[in-house]
């Protein structure tokens, strides 16, 4: 499927929270590089990516069941979609960080599992319209920041997203329907931000109908055949490059339920992260948590 080359002799030591900046994408991977990736990310390329698991019991055995994705914005806080965690018990919810290949434990650094102590969903979340589809997971114990585990930057509330080309990552299906398969390796796709007016016009040609209006808490991205997020990617981040930096990114969107997998060149709706900057800061302030981990200016 792919071949791994260029194994680095002498791996770098884990980075500390004091020296690590938010949103640093490891373009060439950590420790080794993957060629012929076919849509797969490099190991450690998106260190903010998190996996949200549900702790279940079956026939006397305990196991962790994949639910959705998320992003680390503070050592003790994960940003995700409300539609993924609404009505879910914190005691049965686990977050995994530093995951890349779900089929092996032979990665350079082990993944980190953290118990969720509190789930905070936006009070304005509307399951029907997907408006305000955002939630925070407060972790019982902080994560250890290192090369493969880091925070994503957040945009300012008035951030102009423009028409940047951005990256989304996740473990969801590769194609829609019964033929789709959940990904063993963390996938990545590059998609453009689509202006709301253009997106709304396109979406009105779908079963959404001529009266469809994009809620201010939503943005559009994609519209390129076969290039978008899919079933199972809910909660995963859409990140865009920070102007004037090298390989530093901020989170522009959150994958929502019903992602269309890029069929028929139809853009996909994401939660509008800039709109929730103040809400996120307010929630952290209430819990005496620093805002510094997601600030890039």
From TrEMBL:
InterPro entries assigned: Peptidase_S1_PA (IPR009003), Peptidase_S1_PA_chymotrypsin (IPR043504), Peptidase_S1A (IPR001314), Ser/Thr_Proteases_Immune/Dev (IPR051487), Trypsin_dom (IPR001254)
Which domain of life does this protein belong to?
Eukaryota
Residues of the signal peptide = 1-18
* Record's keyword terms, sorted: Disulfide bond, Glycoprotein, Immunity, Innate immunity, Secreted, Signal
GO biological process entries: innate immune response; proteolysis
User: A single GO molecular function, which one?
Assistant: serine-type endopeptidase activity
* Domain Peptidase S1, chain residue ranges per copy: 26-285
Q: Name one GO cellular component term.
A: extracellular region
Q: Which CDD domains match?
A: Tryp_SPc
Q: Where in the cell is it found?
A: Secreted
The family note in this entry says:
Belongs to the peptidase S1 family. CLIP subfamily.
Q: Spell out the protein name for this chain.
A: Phenoloxidase-activating factor 2
Query: Which organism is this entry from?
Result: Anopheles sinensis
Q: What is the lineage of its organism?
A: Eukaryota, Metazoa, Ecdysozoa, Arthropoda, Hexapoda
């Amino acid at each position: 499927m792919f071949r791994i080359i260029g194994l680095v002799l002498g791996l770098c030591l884990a980075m500390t929270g004091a020296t690590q900046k938010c949103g640093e994408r490891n373009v060439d991977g950590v420790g080794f590089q993957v060629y012929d990736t076919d849509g797969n990310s490099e190991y450690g390329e998106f260190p903010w990516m998190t996996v949200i698991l549900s702790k279940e019991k079956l026939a006397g055995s305990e196991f962790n069941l994949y639910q959705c994705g998320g992003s680390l914005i503070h050592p003790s806080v994960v940003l995700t979609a409300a539609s993924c965690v609404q009505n879910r018990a914190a005691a049965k919810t686990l977050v995994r960080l530093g995951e890349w290949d779900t089929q092996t434990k032979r990665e350079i650094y082990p993944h980190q599992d953290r118990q969720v102590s509190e789930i905070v969903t936006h009070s304005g979340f509307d399951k029907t319209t997907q408006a305000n589809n955002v939630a925070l997971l407060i972790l019982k114990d902080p994560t250890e920041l290192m090369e493969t585990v880091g925070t994503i930057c957040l945009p300012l509330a008035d951030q102009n997203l423009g028409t940047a080309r951005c990256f989304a990552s996740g473990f969801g299906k590769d194609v829609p329907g019964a033929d789709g398969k959940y990904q063993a390796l963390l996938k990545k796709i590059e998609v453009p931000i689509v202006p709301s007016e253009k997106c709304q016009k396109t979406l009105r040609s779908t079963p959404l109908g001529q009266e469809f209006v994009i809620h201010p808490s939503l943005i559009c991205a994609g519209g390129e055949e076969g290039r978008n997020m899919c079933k199972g990617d809910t909660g995963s981040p859409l990140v865009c490059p920070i102007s004037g930096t090298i390989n530093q990114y901020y989170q522009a969107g959150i994958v929502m339920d019903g992602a269309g997998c890029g069929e028929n060149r139809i853009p996909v709706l994401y939660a509008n992260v800039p709109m929730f900057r103040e809400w996120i800061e307010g929630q952290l302030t209430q819990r005496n948590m620093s805002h510094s981990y997601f600030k890039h200016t």
